[in-house]
Amino acid sequence: MTVERRVAHAGFTLTRDYPAPIERVWLAFADESQRRAWFGDGDTFDRREWRFDFRVGGRDVDEAQFHGGPRSRYEGVYTDIVEHSRIVTTYDMWLDGIHMSTSVASFEFDRIAAGTRLTHVEHGVFFDQFRADAAAREEGMRGLLEALGQHLGPG
């Protein structure tokens, strides 16, 4: 089978309001145990590798084998962190060892009367046979933001 060597570009913005103070939402990203609770743990996969280094230039790795499914690998680098304000990362994804995408993503934290507004903006380049996966990436991020909301609780 010959793989067509092409790329697709895609971007999306997701905004979510959480009934929690900005400091609590920030900690869910900045504290390793909290980050792992909503981003990296679960019973649908077996963890293979986890690294967390929350600082500018720091690198995160999350690799897992889904039960009955593919092996996914995330490698991210923090390019900008302003406490309680924003986090910017670049990250790469692999599926069963094949490089599927490179993205730049930002998370912006804003105080609102009801708690915290989180805005996530992402721009990705999807490679070869993964060119149609942009919609799945957005759906996956929606799921992660939902998991974050569950982690933060009702307020």
Characterize the structure shown.
The chain has 155 residues and is α+β, with helices and mostly antiparallel strands. It has one domain (7-152): Alpha-D-Glucose-1,6-Bisphosphate, Chain A, domain 4 (2-Layer Sandwich). It is built from three helices and seven strands. The chain has helices at 22-30, 32-40, 134-152; strands spanning 7-18, 45-51, 59-66, 71-82, 86-95, 98-112, 115-127. Strands 1-7-6-5-4-3-2 form a seven-stranded antiparallel sheet. A hairpin with a 7-residue loop joins strand 2 and strand 3 (59-66). Helix 1 packs across helix 2. The longest helix is centred in the last third of the chain and has 19 residues, at 134-152. It is globular and about 55 Å long.
